[in-house]
Amino acid sequence: QVQLVESGGGLVQPGGSLRLSCVASGSIFSINAMGWYRQAPGKQRELVATITIFGRSNYADSVKGRFTISRDTAKNTVYLQMRNLQFEDTAVYYCNVNAGRAVEYWGQGTQVTVSS
Fold first, then answer.
1. 61 closest CA partner among 88, 97, 94, 96
2. What are the backbone dihedrals phi and psi of residue 72, each rounded to the nearest 5 degrees, phi first?
3. What is the DSSP secondary structure assignment for residue 3, as one 8-state letter?
4. Bridge partners, 61 (sequence order)
5. What digits encode the pLDDT tens for the residues 28-74?
6. CA distance 70 to 55
7. Do the beta carbons of residue 35 and residue 98 sit within 8 Å?
8. What residues does 82 pair with on adjacent strands?
9. 54 contact partners, CB below 8 Å, separation of at least 6
10. Distance from C-alpha of 99 to C-alpha of 11, rounded to nearest angstrom
């Protein structure tokens, strides 16, 4: 069984910063990429950022220049450093692991709320 445990969400004022973490554990035989997605109320889940095992990262246009994804391959951990947070960043953020062969795992989600 695979578990993804996210942490680091919370309430922050506009312009503030948060750092999300996600640790993957269990029977993961391979990881092609790890990433973060988010879902705001009434909206579909959308990609925020992903990073491959080779370190290649990809970002949604809305977060480029503000968010940074990184990973510790040895620890099966992925991070999302979020800076200059805006109201529209409010969402539940989900960790994702792409294990290849159409196999994906999802975390339970962590709430990020940007409010003054």
1. 88
2. -115, 100
3. E
4. none
5. 778 899 999 999 999 999 999 999 989 999 999 999 999 999 999 88
6. 8
7. yes
8. 18, 67
9. none
10. 31
Alpha carbons 25 and 32: distance in angstroms, whole number: 15
Cα–Cα distance for residue pair 31/47, rounded to 1 Å: 18
Residue 111 identity: Q
What does the alpha-carbon distance between residue 36 and residue 19 come to, in Å, rounded to a whole number? 12
Structural contact between residues 104 and 98, judged by C-beta atoms closer than 8 angstroms = yes
DSSP annotation of 30 reads -
Q: pLDDT tens-digit profile of 67-93?
A: 999 999 888 899 999 999 999 999 999
- CB burial string 29-51: b at 16+ within 10 A, e below: eebebbbbbbeeeeeeeeebbbb
In sequence order, the 6+-apart residues with CB closer than 8 A to the CB of 76 are 23, 24, 25, 28, 31
pLDDT, mean of residues 94-99: 94
The structure tokens 């709320």 sit at 113
- Model confidence band, residue 2 (pLDDT cutoffs 50, 70, 90): confident
